[in-house]
Amino acid sequence: MQTSGCSGYWFLLENLYLDEQVRYTVTIYPVVILWLTGVMDNNASPGSHMYIFDALILAISCILFVVCITLVTWRHHKQPLYTNSEPRLSPVEISLTQPNFFL
Fold it and tell me: Which value, in Å, is the radius of gyration of the alpha carbons in the chain?
């Protein structure tokens, strides 16, 4: 029972409050989807209440995964975290701007 609530809470927390920190971390959803697929595959009674409950959680997880990928793609193009306006420096140029402590 707690799995559907946790993934729903994580979806809201990830997409509303922690967007800048975890925007490109979407591996949680495939793990839950694979886990639930394995649980349903090992279940001996497909008509039981637990099988239906697992199928419902699997469907919710798949929908949330598609919505999350859509949001990440949309936000990547409309609200990028990084801009390309900064001058690009080579590693040598970066090291020359740092103070030398060991010389």
Answer: 21
Per-residue pLDDT of 15-70, as tens digits, reads 788 878 888 888 888 998 999 888 888 876 877 888 888 889 899 989 999 998 99
Cα–Cα distance, 65 to 88 (Å, whole number): 34
CA 89 from centroid of its chain's CA atoms: 31
Using alpha carbons, select from 28, 35, 36, 38 the residue that is nearest to residue 55. 36
Q: Is 0.70 topped by the overall pTM?
A: no
Give the integer Cα–Cα distance in Å for 71 and 65: 10
DSSP 91: H
